[in-house]
Amino acid sequence: MLNALIDWSARNRFLVLLATLFITLAGIGAVLKTPLDAIPDLSDVQVILYTEFPGQAPQVVEDQVTYPLTTALLSVPKSKVVRGFSFFGASFVYVIFEDGTDIYWARSRVLEYVNSVSGKLPKGVSPTLGPDATGVGWVYQYAVLAKDKTLAELRTLQDWYLRYQLAKAPGVAEVASIGGFVQQYQVTVDPIKLKTYGIPLMRVAEVIRNSNRDVGGRTLEMAETEYMVRGRGYLRGKGDIENLVLKAQNGTPVRIADIGRVELVADERRGLTELNGEGEVVSGIAMARYGQNALEVIHNLKAKVAEISAGLPDGVSIETVYDRSELIHRAIDTLKRTLAEESLIVALVCIVFLLHLRSALVAILMLPVAILAAFIGMRALGINANIMSLGGIAIAVGAMIDAAIVMIENAHKHLERLQPGEFDKHSRSEAIIAACKEVGPALFFSLLIITVSFLPVFTLEAQEGRLFTPLAWTKTLSMAAAALLSVTLVPVLMLLFIRGKIRPESENPVNRFLIRIYRPIIAGVMNWKKATIAIATFVLAVSIVPASRLGSEFMPTLNEGTLFYMPTTLPGLSVTKAAELLQTQNKIIKSFPEVASVFGKAGRAQTATDPAPLEMFETVINLKPESEWRPGLTTDKLIAE
User: Fold this and answer.
1) Nearest CA to 440 among 475, 397, 492?
2) Can you tell me the distance from the alpha carbon of 401 to that of 450, in angstroms, rounded to the nearest whole number?
């Protein structure tokens, strides 16, 4: 069957080349549309429930909110684990689903079960779903800076303008705010005056709540015109609250201003941010939606930032403090360079050993076609281009052209055997086809064996499977494409390019030198079979000792030009002390000449994806290019300092 396929391909060159053209164009389209990221997304399929219960202790939150929610969600279909965390005034519930579960199906199931338990929760407490982002969805962070604006003013700008504008960028799931001060009106009552007037504290809250609303009426027709009647009652400032009447005593109204004071103050803070040791800043965190191209999302955010920057108040600027696109570009560029170097080395080896440039072109042209065919499979399977998936292609490059080289060398042998009078076009073509048929089937099956060598990797589960499965897929796809091309495209390219004078192997000085070396070795090991096996067994036994002492890690360290430092302190740390420690830490780190900027976060942002307590600091250290570092300094030495 394979011989028939080789024969058909060789005699239908136009159709094979046309199919190759279509594969090439489809592969280029797949390369352009394949999402780019630094590493595979290792996070589980999860749905987060975030519930606010202001002012309540963690134990109260646990008993009245977290426990009812977690017990109700235990029976959600396809859920593996339900975790609940209770903090001061907030509850986080994580529902982890089985691998392969559709995220939006999971979110709808969680909502159904939350609706069934909502009646058991305290009045006014309403759980909300977290954004449809993954655990690695934080792709972009920025700080809002201004010299003549207060932190409260900048936080207002972030909450009511920047956040909504950036959330419109395609692929963004949520933009969370942190830092600065959220303003609120606060009524501080005098208990002695309340007792004097005989007004309970709940009456104050009730009056404020009932007075802050509009009342709808009906329509009124006058002079052939319809008018809508409504009562306007929203509170618009401090004075409106002060003039609210609590009761009338002897015809005299008792106002809120008579029993306390009204102030515009900052809300309670559970998180803050600091930049370069120079003081607190207001910050925003942009999260990419599940399954989106992280690099494209970051580009959309940058374009949106550039668009809205012109409309910001004078003196206000947006500074990027974390940008994952740098890591993505660095990782992808490294692999692109590696693939290019491998392809160049393969081409040079082909030229040196074959001493025939046209013959080397067969292997050189087959390689990119096979890689593009692998990208078509990646696109169809929804696999991102990252260091693991592209690493699979890099591993396969050397083996992908083995079949082409062997077939070319066999064709050279067949052409060498032709008599001078037989060397016409027909005889040359028949000799090349015969050479392909002679070794093609064996080479095809040898490549298939290499193709299936990574099948055990597909049995990995959880994070191991999510990390290594892309590599196994791309290597398998690359080898399968190479196997198919070896019996279709390679014979056609051989007929087109193997022309002119073919030098015998004996005329190649490199081949003669290597033959002179390995023939005595082969003769020796064949004469001393038992000794050879004994030496090999001894080497294998000796290698067990160093192999057992090698270290191990789940995945290698990525040098993205950014360091992440996350110290913790004692529980119960106040927000004021946290700000002081964070600024001191950032000032020390910024003093290193290799550091470009330091962005620190203490506590949590206003998002369900961030349950960090105040005593945990998350510091992003952006480094300068290594060309600007002190001589001899490495990343490890810098971390040690």
Assistant:
1) 492
2) 13
242 within 8 A of 257, measured Cβ to Cβ: yes
Residue 96, C-beta contacts closer than 8 angstroms, at least 6 positions apart: 44, 45, 46, 79, 80, 81, 82, 83
H helix intervals, 45-173: 58-61, 67-73, 103-117, 151-157, 163-167
CA 272 to chain centre: 25
What is the pTM assigned to this prediction?
Answer: 0.79
Q: Tell me: the pLDDT tens digits for 444-455?
A: 788 778 777 778
From 29, 27, 12, select the one nearest 489 (Cα to Cα): 12
Q: Report DSSP letters for 607-633, one per residue.
A: STT----TTBEEEEEEEPPGGGSPTT-
* Measured distance CA(119)–CA(124) in Å, rounded: 11
pLDDT tens digits, one per residue of 489-532 = 888 888 887 776 777 766 777 777 878 888 888 888 888 888 88
Which of 383, 379, 444, 349 is closest to 41 using CA atoms? Answer: 383
What is the rounded CA–CA span in Å between residue 61 and residue 273? 26
- 597 by DSSP, 3-state: which? strand
Write the CA distances from 154 to 148, 317, 601, 607, 629, integer angstroms. Answer: 10, 10, 17, 19, 35
What is the sign, positive or negative, of the torsion defined by CA atoms of 549, 554, 558, 563?
Answer: negative
- The CA R_g of the chain, rounded to the nearest whole Å, is 35
* % pLDDT > 70, the chain: 96
Whole-number pLDDT of residue 283? 92
Contact in structure between 470 and 388 (CB atoms under 8 Å): yes
CB-CB contact of 23 with 373 (8 Å): yes
DSSP tag of 391: H
Question: Could you count the other beta carbons within 10 Å of the beta carbon of residue 174?
Answer: 22
Q: With contact defined as beta carbons under 8 Å apart, do 564 and 141 qualify?
A: no
561 three-class SS: coil
User: Helices 357-381 and 325-354: crossing angle, nearest 10°?
Assistant: 150
| CB atoms near residue 78 (< 10 Å) | 15
